[in-house]
Amino acid sequence: MKSSHLQQMQRREFMRRSSALALAGTAAPWALSLAGIGEAAAATAPSDYKALVCVFLYGGNDNGNTFVPYDTASYASYAAMRQTLATPRDQLGATALTPSLALPDGRQLALAPQLGRLKTLFDAGRLSVLFNVGNLIQPTSLAQYKAASVPLPPKLFSHNDQQSIWQSSLPEGATSGWGGRLGDQFLSANGNATFSCINVSGNAVFMSGQQAVQYQLSSSGAVAINGISKPLFGSQACADALRSLITAERSHWMEQELSRVVSRSVGAQAIVSGALASLSALATPFDTSSSLSNQLQLVAKLIAARNALGARRQVFFVSIGGFDLHDFLPTQHPALLSSVSEALASFYEATVELGVAEQVTSFTASDFGRTLSSNGDGSDHGWGSHHFLLGGAVKGGRFYGTLPAAAPGGPDDVGQGRLLPTTSVDQLAATLASWMGVSSSELPRVLPQIANFSQRDLGFLGA
Q: Could you tell me the CATH number of the domain that includes residue 87?
């Protein structure tokens, strides 16, 4: 009895997130026919198309050399803190930003010299910057931080935990992220729920929902099972036999779930490959030597194939690593920023080509920012950071949030130029979710901590 009870508990846990998807029936591939499970989606079924694209910069992007103080006084303070890391001011003139609403006290910012294409999009009103955003449980002042009088995100400055909290609001070990929970809201709105949450860079908790399951592709497209995608040992009959074997109904519940997952993969691969094969080539050029560009090019193609995929609401995840630069920051960071700039700009231009620029919003994210102070040849783990917001619906050419002082011991400095965030990731996420169509009453399902923040719309998106 005890063993049987334990098995039932394990089975229930394994089936928890897939139970709604299994309504399609055992004869159909898992999650390939979900239009009828309206109870899995709380948002009103939309008639238009919208997509979010999360561009994650793994390792903790150095915001100090991405968004550089440019006015004379702020630059002097920045250079004193950064020492050998500081970008020479005479290299910043071409990327100095002139926002539609000027910063107070004559303060100015420039983008890194490698971000020229993003500066062009800022000037065109298609890109904005969100200041000092990071993981928070509730609004927190410097005094509260020092007194430890409010709850703080656990394991601050730890890569794995802060990546997880950014993506899920929970420490490492979380089973769902806010991108996936956003996908949960729209499962029934999509004709094929498999393509609600698409990850082009591997696995990320950001894309897992309570019911939505992230669909993973490589930057080349859907991944086929070699033994059944072409004749096996020169025999189509062998390939057909292998397909039947790995997708057959099973009696043991774990074997059965594996069969469902494989069936889902086989069916989805056929749909995606067919949809992509029918597309005309994009005219927009992408840098094919860049992993991030290749990922975003595939996202653009998947968006172009949205009707064939039955999608009205989609969340995408792409990423680039290498930002944990305790050393070699002056030599390695510029190349990383160039890759980000080229990839994002090409992707935006592709959305214009496809006629969906107003319907696609991209944003950058990272583990955390980095210290403004130098450790000699790099910077250490920080907290708050600045991020890009890009798309036709973005109220561009503007700054949002509060720009912290680039000075040691400033009002937002918790030590070494680590910035105490003045805007939470939850507020950023709530703004994006609302634009996608999630009602205010449903936001807590996506963002359990949003109740701690009074401002839930940061104002950077239009209709």
A: 3.40.720
